[in-house]
User: Fold VTT domain-containing protein from Citrus sinensis.
Amino acid sequence: MAAARNVAAGDGSRVFRDEEESVNGKVKEGDESPTAKRFKSERFPLTHWEFAAFVGVFLLFVTGLFCIYLTMPAADYGKLKLPRTIADLRLLKDNLATYAQDYPVPFIIGYCSTYIFMQTFMIPGTIFMSLLAGALFGVIRGLILVVFNATAGASSCFFLSKLIGRPLVSWFWPEKLRFFQAEIAKRREKLLNYMLFLRITPSLPNLFINLASPIVDIPFHIFFLATLIGLIPASYITVR
Assistant:
């Protein structure tokens, strides 16, 4: 009986030790327990160097955008804000119409740089920028401007994701990334057709396509052509 008690006591202390290590987060790397998986999944995916690279690229874009704004002719900046609603868009259109006529080149440079910045860093509001292009420049010129900016911004996002995007996409959309990778592997011979299909249809969000494409080894020229051509229908509807 004493031996049995010793065994029981030993087992109990071992169980207690295991539970204590799990609570304190000291589970070994090879442990596949649910607690270990939870700790792994909740950890921020970027390393210090990757996060520093993202901050550096962001500050570089912000500095360039700020310098462009400084070189633009003076305006009532209190009335110039990013549109978030249709009402904001109407007010912005009225305030910018005269400014765009008086200073067309600085205005277009400022508009394009803002659009590309928002598209690169996935900032919401580009659809209102597209609506604004149609209101200020008409259908044809507005469409050309929007497609150019959307393609340039998506390309910039592509290279940013190539730099630091793999851990983020794997962290946010693991299942969607595996699905996308499997579909790409099956369609390597007709990859451009498949990418055009994704751009034209809402099968996958454009944000995810921009971020995941370099991770699943889609060549940039295919990504660029599919984006340039595939965004035309949706951009035409928005601009018009």
Q: What stands out?
A: Confidence is low (pLDDT under 50) at residues 1-41. The radius of gyration is 25 Å. The first helix runs from residue 2 to 23.
